[in-house]
Amino acid sequence: MSEGKKIREVRIALKLTLEEFGSKVGVTKAAMSNIEKGNRNVTEQMRKAICREFNVNYDWLMYGDGEMFSDLPQTFLDELCRQHNMDDFDRQLIEFYLTLDAGCREALKKHIRETLSHKKDSPQ
Predict the structure, then answer these.
(1) Which tens digits make up the pLDDT trace of 3-34?
(2) How many whole angstroms separate alpha carbon 81 and alpha carbon 75?
(3) Fewer CB in a 10 Å sphere around the end CB: N or C, the chain?
(4) Which residues form the HTH cro/C1-type domain (predicted)?
(5) Angle between the 3-13 and 29-37 helix axes, to the nearest 10 degrees?
């Protein structure tokens, strides 16, 4: 399978538009379309950006070896929970937060800031 087809497969698996995917790796919708069609080569910088931004296994992208997605963030989250003595609910909260879009994250952070501000201002 060509590299462009693999990138398209990643984009489709993540349910992203050409524009959404391209913006994460710093290219336009048209550039992404050309990459997927094989009309434009993928730079090493773009490969690394795709792997970093979307947790894609570099060996899969380059050579077709292994799984499409890497386990690294899961491992990172496991380590984070271990280091901070977090339980399963803590982990679920973090995983849920990571699924929120930017607008929902901002609304949640605003609510938490306001709650903390009120708590700080109220007499103990």
Answers:
(1) 999 999 999 999 999 999 999 999 999 999 99
(2) 10
(3) C
(4) 7-61
(5) 130
pLDDT of residue 73: 59
Check residue 84 and report its DSSP letter: T
pLDDT at 38 over 90: yes
Sole residue written with tokens 């795709």: 50
CA 25, CA 23: separation in Å to the nearest integer?
5
Contact 40, 46 (CB under 8 A): no
CA distance 102 to 104: 6
For the chain, the domains span 3-63, 72-121
Q: Would you tell me which CATH number, out of the four given (1.10.260.40, 3.30.70.2190, 2.40.30.20, 1.25.40.10), belongs to the domain 3-63?
A: 1.10.260.40
Each residue's pLDDT tens digit, 62-75: 999 999 988 665 66
What residues form DSSP beta bridges with 69?
Answer: 56
